[in-house]
Specification:
- With 131 residues, the protein is α+β, with helices and mostly antiparallel strands.
- It is elongated and about 85 Å long.
- It is built from 2 helices and 10 strands.
- Strand 5 and strand 6 form a beta hairpin.
- A 4-stranded antiparallel beta sheet has the order 3-2-7-8. Strands 1-9-10 form a 3-stranded antiparallel beta sheet, with no helix packed on it.
- Helix content is 18%, strand content 32%.
């Protein structure tokens, strides 16, 4: 399996927004769920929320699941193979070295010999107006 076949995604993700919690019916939802024109209205009991700290409070950044609409604080990040559709958490993945190169000191002289004439040829051709 190659790295380009794996993509990262949040399983319970997508909308990151400020969330509110009402004190009347203990409803938790995203800020945009409460906002109606210039007022805050509880989507569950339909009461107007006037005072932060009394009627409702901001409970920070939350996410909403696109599948079931549940609001939560921490998304589960998973990696998916695009070909097989199999999913893994970061802990389940393992790091595999696909290509690794080391410099062979014994070949240093050979490499210098190979590169020097080519560089001189390029300089010579450029001095003659070639690009």
């Amino acid at each position: 399996m190659y790295l380009w076949n794996i993509v990262q995604g949040m399983i319970h993700p997508i909308c990151e927004r400020s969330a509110c919690r009402t004190f009347f019916v203990r409803y938790v939802g995203l800020d945009r769920d409460f906002r109606q024109e210039s007022k805050y209205i509880c989507p569950k009991c339909r009461k107007e929320l006037r005072l932060i700290g009394t009627d409702y409070r901001n409970i920070g950044i939350h996410y909403r699941c696109q599948d079931d609409g549940e609001v939560f604080t921490t998304p589960v990040i998973k990696w998916r193979n695009l070909k097989t559709r199999k999913e893994w958490t970061l802990e389940e993945l393992r790091d595999t070295e696909v290509y690794s190169y080391t410099f062979n000191q014994d070949k240093k002289g050979w490499l210098e010999f190979q590169l020097k004439p080519k560089a001189q040829l390029v300089d010579f051709l450029r001095s003659r107006g070639m690009k």
